[in-house]
Amino acid sequence: MRTDTPQTIYRKDYNPPTYLVDTVELGFDLDPARTVVANRLTLRRNPAAGGRAIELHGEEIELVALRLNGKTLAGADYTLADNRLVIHEAPDDVVLEIESVCVPEQNTTLSGLYVSNGNFFTQCEAEGFRRITYFPDRPDVMAKYTVMLRADKARYPVLLSNGNLIQEGDLDDGRHYALWEDPFKKPSYLFALVAAKLVCQEETFRLADGRDALLQVWVEDGNLDKTDYAMQSLKHSIRWDEEKYGLELDLDRFMIVATSDFNMGAMENKGLNIFNTKFVLANPRVATDVDFQGIEAVVAHEYFHNWTGNRVTCRDWFQLSLKEGLTVFRDQEFTADMIGTDTGRAVTRIDQVRTLRQHQFPEDAGPMAHPVRPDSFVEINNFYTVTVYEKGAEVVRMYQTLFGVDGFRKGMDLYFERHDEQAVECDDFRRAMADANGRDLTQFERWYSQAGTPVLRFEGRWDETAHTYTLKLIQSCPPTPGQPQKLPFHIPVAVGLLDAAGNDMRLVVDSVDRGATAVLELTQAEQTFVFTDVKEQPVASVLRGFSAPVVLQGSYTDADLLHLFSHDSDPVNRWEAGQRLAMSRLLKLAGEAAAKGNSGASLNLDETFIEAMRKVLVDETLDPAFREQALLLPSEGMVAEQIDGVDPLAVHIARQFIRADIGARLRGELLAQYEANLTPGAYSPDAASAGKRALKNIALSYLNAAPDDESVALAQRQFDEADNMTDRAAALGALIASRVPEAADALDVFYQEFQGEALVVDKWFMMQAAAPTTDVAAVRALMRHPAFTLRNPNRARSLVAAFCMNNPVQFHAPDGSGYAFWAEQVIALDALNPQVASRLARAMDRWRRYAPALQEQMKAALQRVAGQGKLSNDVREVVTKALAN
C-alpha cells in the first residue's frame, strides 16, 4: 500500500469489529486480465461493539455492484475512499452481495490473487484478501467459506481451494468448475485458491482415529520427481503432532502446492498450503542437505499451523507471535525428534542459537527493534521478523524450560480446550500455561512487551572453607526506540558446575539436590544463589542449552573456556566456549589489521587456539555434525556487532587470516578428516550422513582457505565426481573462495548443467554474489544475465539481497558503490514488490555502527530512498526508522 502520509496503527486502539461474518460464499470467474469475484456474506451485529456501520477493506479492485438484503445500494448509502468501503447504517442481520473485478496478471506484489508462470495463486496473509474482494479483512473476523471456481479447462485443469471438494464438472463454453467447502471457521487471511496446470503426488494416509486422509503435493509438470521428501515430511508431521500433542488432521484432505513466485517460504492456508518451490522440490541432484532440512522444517511448520494458527488464531496482527513463535518452537522440536539422538538435538539447538546471534540480536539493537508483541506498526508485513518468529519461539521454549515437557503439554491442552476456533491474544497462551501449572506468570509478560536483548552478567565465588559456590546473576536491558527503561525479566538460567577433571558436580541449592543442571529463576535485577558441598574450585557452565535469549557476560578466562570446550557435558555450552575463544581472537586481529591500514601482514594466531581446534577436529568421540559446528567461526556480521565504528575490511582480513592459518597449520588433520568422513554409496539426507558431509566439506573449505595444488585438486575432483548437490556446491564454493582460475571454469560448467533448474540457478547466483571477490560491477554484470529477473523474489534475493547482506567487504566498499547500488535496487523493487524491497532495505539498519566515512555514505543512500515521492509504506517505514534512530 502506498500513501503520502503513512498511518501508524497502535495495539492500544484495538476495537472489536462492529459486525461479525458467519458465512462467505465466493464465486470466481478466473481470467488473468479480468477476474470477476462474486461475494455473498451473512453478517450480524457484534454485541461486543457499538455502532451500525459495516467497514470493508478493498485495494486495487473495482467495485461493480453492492446489494444489502436484496436492495442495490446507491452512492448515498455508502462511502468508498482510502481503500475502505463503509456502509453507514445497517440492520442487525445482513446479507451483503458484492461484485468486484481484479486484474491478476498485473499484480506484481504477489499479494492477493496473482498469476505466476501462467497459473493463478493467492497469498492473503497478512492483508492480501482485500486485493481480491471487499471484506472486513482482519483476523478476528472468522467465518465458514464456500468457494466456486470457474475457469478455462485447458489452461487451468486443476481448481483448488480450502477444505473439502464438494462438486466438480464441465461447463458448456470450454470451462469447468469446482465447488469447495471449508467446514471450519477461519479468518480471511487463511483463504486460498489455485487454478493451474499442475500434476501431483498423492497418498492415502491412515490417521490415528482410523480415518483415511488424502495427501497431495502439487507441482508443475517436470518436477514430480522432486516431491517425495516433502510428502514424507508431511506424513511425519501429521504422525508427530498426533503423538506429541494429541492433535489430528481435521479435514478429509491436505494439499501442498508449489510456486516459484512467492514472497515467503510458505503459507498455512487451511488445508491448502501454498509453498515457495524452495521448500518443496528436492532430490539429491539439485538439493543440498540444508535444503532437505529446510523442506522438512517448513512442511512441518505449515502443517502444525493447522492447530496453532488456524484452529486458534490471532485477535489482531500485534499478536502474530501467538501463532508464529509457538509454531516455530513446534517445528524445532519436531526437527530434533526426527533426528532422534542427543547430539542431533544439540546440533539443531546450536543452529537456532546461531540464527538468534546473527540475525535477531542485531534486530533487537537496531532501529526496527520491537517487542515479540509489537505495540505499533505502519506496515504489518515489516513485522514478519526474526523477533516475532525466532525470539517468539525462545519465549515459548522458556515455558517448557520452566515447567518441563509434561507441564508444557498440560498448558497446551488447556489452551486448546479454552480457545478452539477463537481469535485470541498472546496473554491467553500465557494464562493457559500459568493456570495449567499453578504458577504466577505476571512478570513473564515482559518477554512479550519489552524490546531488546537482556544482558545477563554472572559473578562466581568459591569459598574453600565453607565448601560453597556463590553465583551472582545481574540482569539489564539496553534502551530501544520508544522504551528507554526496562523492568527485570523472568529469566530461566540453566547452570552446571564442572570439576577439575571436567565432570559435572552434583548441585545442591537450598538443601535440594538439583542434579547436574539446575534451572535458576532470575526475577530481580540482581540475585544470589548458593551451591553447597562444593569441595573444589569449579568452572561454571552458565546458560546451558541457551535457556533464555540473552547476552551472557562473565569473567571467563581462556583456561576456563578451554576447559568448557574440552569437557562440558552440555553440547551447546561446549560449542559456546569455542565461539568465545574464536571471537576474542577475531576482535583482536581485526583491531590489529585496522591499525596497520587494513593489512594482514604480521598477524599471528596463538598456538593455544590452534590446539583447541585440533582437539575438537580429531576427537572421534564427538559426532561429526557437532565437530563441524564447533569448527565454524563466527560470521563477519557477528564480529562487526561487537565493534563500534566497524571497518568491514579489517574484520574480513581477520577472519580470512584465521581460516587460512587453520587450513595451513592443521593441513594433515583436515586431510585425514576429509577422507574419514566420505559417504560412499547412494546419497541419503539422514542426519548421520549429513553430519559427515558437513565435517568433510568444512575441512575442504579450510584447506582451500590456504590453497595449494593438492587442496585445489581435491576440490576440483569433488566437483567433477560428486553425485549430490551438497558435495557439488561445497566444492564449487571452495574453488571460488580459493580465488584460483579453475573457479571460473567450474562456475560455467555448473550453470550449463543446471540452467534448467531454477533453484540451482539461484544457488549459482548466490555463491557469486556472496564471494568477497565479487564487486558491484560484477553484480551489475550478473543482473544482465538472461536468467536474472527482479520480478521473481527468489532470483532477486539470490543476487541482489545476497550481495547486500552476505558480502560485507564489497557491499561496504569505501567508494560507496555498494550503497548506491542498494538504493537503486530498493527503489526498483519497491515499484514491483514492496515486501521484497522492504526486506532488502533492512540491509542498512545498522548504518550508525560503521566508521564515520562509511556512515556518511550510508546515510546519503538512505536519504535518497526516503526522498522518493512514491514509496510503499513497507519501505518508507524501514528507511524512516533507520534515519531517525
UniProtKB/TrEMBL annotation:
<keyword id="KW-0862">Zinc</keyword>
<feature type="domain" description="Aminopeptidase N-like N-terminal">
    <location>
        <begin position="105"/>
        <end position="190"/>
    </location>
</feature>
<dbReference type="GO" id="GO:0006508">
    <property type="term" value="P:proteolysis"/>
</dbReference>
<dbReference type="InterPro" id="IPR037144">
    <property type="entry name" value="Peptidase_M1_pepN_C_sf"/>
</dbReference>
<dbReference type="Pfam" id="PF17432">
    <property type="entry name" value="DUF3458_C"/>
</dbReference>
<comment type="function">
    <text>Aminopeptidase N is involved in the degradation of intracellular peptides generated by protein breakdown during normal growth as well as in response to nutrient starvation.</text>
</comment>
<comment type="similarity">
    <text>Belongs to the peptidase M1 family.</text>
</comment>
<dbReference type="GO" id="GO:0008270">
    <property type="term" value="F:zinc ion binding"/>
</dbReference>
<dbReference type="InterPro" id="IPR014782">
    <property type="entry name" value="Peptidase_M1_dom"/>
</dbReference>
<dbReference type="GO" id="GO:0008237">
    <property type="term" value="F:metallopeptidase activity"/>
</dbReference>
<keyword id="KW-0031">Aminopeptidase</keyword>
<dbReference type="Pfam" id="PF17900">
    <property type="entry name" value="Peptidase_M1_N"/>
</dbReference>
<dbReference type="InterPro" id="IPR024601">
    <property type="entry name" value="Peptidase_M1_pepN_C"/>
</dbReference>
<dbReference type="InterPro" id="IPR045357">
    <property type="entry name" value="Aminopeptidase_N-like_N"/>
</dbReference>
<dbReference type="InterPro" id="IPR012779">
    <property type="entry name" value="Peptidase_M1_pepN"/>
</dbReference>
<dbReference type="InterPro" id="IPR038438">
    <property type="entry name" value="PepN_Ig-like_sf"/>
</dbReference>
<dbReference type="InterPro" id="IPR027268">
    <property type="entry name" value="Peptidase_M4/M1_CTD_sf"/>
</dbReference>
<keyword id="KW-0482">Metalloprotease</keyword>
<feature type="domain" description="Peptidase M1 membrane alanine aminopeptidase">
    <location>
        <begin position="229"/>
        <end position="447"/>
    </location>
</feature>
<dbReference type="InterPro" id="IPR035414">
    <property type="entry name" value="Peptidase_M1_pepN_Ig-like"/>
</dbReference>
<keyword id="KW-0479">Metal-binding</keyword>
<dbReference type="GO" id="GO:0016285">
    <property type="term" value="F:alanyl aminopeptidase activity"/>
</dbReference>
<protein>
    <recommendedName>
        <fullName>Aminopeptidase N</fullName>
        <ecNumber>3.4.11.2</ecNumber>
    </recommendedName>
</protein>
<feature type="domain" description="Peptidase M1 alanyl aminopeptidase Ig-like fold">
    <location>
        <begin position="452"/>
        <end position="553"/>
    </location>
</feature>
<dbReference type="Pfam" id="PF11940">
    <property type="entry name" value="DUF3458"/>
</dbReference>
<dbReference type="InterPro" id="IPR042097">
    <property type="entry name" value="Aminopeptidase_N-like_N_sf"/>
</dbReference>
<keyword id="KW-0645">Protease</keyword>
<dbReference type="InterPro" id="IPR001930">
    <property type="entry name" value="Peptidase_M1"/>
</dbReference>
<keyword id="KW-0378">Hydrolase</keyword>
<feature type="domain" description="Peptidase M1 alanyl aminopeptidase C-terminal">
    <location>
        <begin position="558"/>
        <end position="884"/>
    </location>
</feature>
<dbReference type="Pfam" id="PF01433">
    <property type="entry name" value="Peptidase_M1"/>
</dbReference>
